[in-house]
Amino acid sequence: MSDWQPSALQQERLAYRRRRTVRSGVIAGVSTLVLVALLVVGIGSTPGWPRVRETFFNVDRGWEALPVVAQGLWLNIRVMLVCAVLIVVLGLTLAILRTLRGPIFFPLRIFAAAYTDVFRGLPLLLVIFLLGFGVPALQLRGLPNQAVIWGGVALVLTYSSYVAEVFRAGIESIHPSQRAAARSLGLSHRQTLRFVVLPQAVRRVLPPLLNDFVSLQKDSGLIAVLGVIDAIRAAQLETAEDFNFTPYVVAGMLFVALTIPLTRLTDWVARRQGWYGGGGGPV
Amino acid sequence: MNPRTAVAVLATIVAVGLSACAPEDEPTGSSTPSGPDACSKEKLALKVPGTFTVGTDKPAYAPWFVDDDPSNGKGYESAVTYAVAEHLGFAASEVKWQTVQFNAAFAPGPKKFDLDVNQISISEDRRKAVDFSSGYYDVRQTVITTAGSKIANAKKVAELADAKLGAQVGTTSYTMLRDQIKPKQTPAVFDTNDLAVQALKNKQIDGIVVDLPTGFYMTAAQLDNGKIVGQLPAGGQAEQFGFVLEKGSPLTPCVSQAVDALKADGTLAKLQQQYLTAEGAPELS
Fold first, then answer.
1. What is the DSSP string of B228-262?
2. Quick one: signal sequence residues (chain B) (predicted)?
């Protein structure tokens, strides 16, 4: 170790910077505390607060409702996972169909465009009712009758039209020079799509895909209208017992708890795949 | 203004604003009307002076209402409401109906109705959130199905345990289904009874638990081959429908008094005879 020391001037600078950092930290902390305290006092002093607290934030009631609501959430999770896989497959297929070149593919392009137009436009609830009550009403042999299956089909149909458009946007955002370069290297159309266009496109649309996934997670509860019990419906059943809304808050917290890790995971995956590489890193 | 001052000012405004713009809580009404004419029309604390504002959900179903129009005075709940209003001194033209979703009827905070009538069962747990008038109808729960289903000939509650049953969300029908029948399959829970009927028609469920008058309506009007399996045994405490009022409403004792008077003079029995007759529904053991 050398006995080198920064100059007196440098030491003064360092000390000054440290003081400023501490000062910033203290101010930020105090400012946050004051704001939170004011909010707590402000909301707490409203005349309706005791009743709102009792009705929405009753801790005992929340614990009591947790197992039932969590059991409902398990349905949401299963529906979401199964549907998500089907949606990605169907959505990607539709997007590729729609970006095919050449006159021979015209019918496929038209089909894909019509599909996205219709299912993106139809309200999800309508599709769920139509399939969930309409198809079983046909009384066809061999078709399943369960609400959860037809509700899932409705989710897949609707969401695959959203996801197809997201994928299409990704595919069309790849600069033509990439295709040209790949073709000039001797790659076929199919190879260009598989090895050059799709990997870049998928990487670019990961964040909006996650958006749709989170949205799907919540909309998976819409199939409750067909009679199945998801997290929200379980909370509703609990609430009906004593008119206390805390179980809804519990369900909301569970959904948020599901979403946050998912977002972090996607960010991590995106960064690992060099998401910041193409468009330039953070400035 | 530098940013720190700005934040502090903003925070203060938020805090002060929240407490300042909040209305004072209304005083809690006494539990009994004081004085002989405390319930006279002029002294009632109404939402809209001179108007008896009543909430119910839409669509309003038979046999509780007729033609989805609460204001025609037909159907049991409509008729009882007008009878109560008359007892309190209101002319029929002074009764105004409002659409109030079932869930909104018991959300905390001020209500826009004087009372809500929506086949809401009285329970002690619910009383923590709202006021109830005296009960205006004693409820019995029934199981209905279609002819030829596997529970069509059930005589005992135990025979229903294997069936896939449905009920409307937030009703005591669901509670009775869960607690009395103890079904082995998760019950199907629907937003409205109409959806439950659709599922029953589709054979997605084997039967529906509903209150008796609704069961009559479903089997007679909504199903082609509907059948009432039977009435569930009454629970420990008799279940009653009551008017819902805002928690601590000064109107509650007056409405209860009116309901009690109508019960005593036989008006309720007469209206039940007219709109909800209970013959032809066997008891399940």
1. EEEEPPP-SS-EEEEEEE-TT-TTHHHHHHHHHHH
2. 1-22
- The amino acid present at B87, given as its one-letter code, is H
Q: Do both B258 and B118 map to the same domain?
A: yes
pLDDT at A182 over 90: yes
Per-residue pLDDT tens for B137-151? 888 889 999 988 888
What domain range includes position B174? Answer: 141-231
Residue B133: inside a domain: yes
B106 Cβ under 8 Å from any chain A Cβ: yes
CA pair distance B180, A177, nearest whole angstrom: 70
Q: Using CA atoms, how far apart are residues A124 and A141, in angstroms rounded to an integer?
A: 26
Considering all CA atoms of chain A, what is the largest pairwise distance in Å, rounded to the nearest integer? 91
* Prediction pTM value: 0.75
Tokens of residue B215, six digits: 């069961």
Residue from B178, B192, B198, B246 whose CB has the most chain A CBs within 10 Å, to mutate: B198
- The CA-CA-CA angle for residues A126, A245, B255, to 5°, reads 100
What is the bridge-based pairing of β-strands B239-245 and B131-139? antiparallel
Rounded Cα distance, A150 and A49, in Å: 43
Task: Tell me whether A45 touches chain B (CB under 8 Å).
Answer: yes
Instruction: With H, G, I as helix, E, B as strand and everything else as coil, classify residue B163.
Output: coil
In a domain, B197, yes or no: yes
Q: Please give the Cα distance from B211 to B205 (Å, whole number).
A: 18
Q: Structural domain tally of chain B?
A: 2
Which pLDDT tens digit goes with each residue over B266-282? Answer: 888 888 888 877 666 67
B5 vs A: CB within 8 A? no
> Is residue B111 domain-shared with residue B222, that is, in the same domain?
no
B218 and B253 in one domain?
no
Residues B70 and B210 in one domain: no
ipTM of the complex: 0.73
Which residue out of B21, B103, B173, B202 would a mutagenesis test of the A interface target, given it has the greatest number of A Cβ atoms within 10 Å? B202
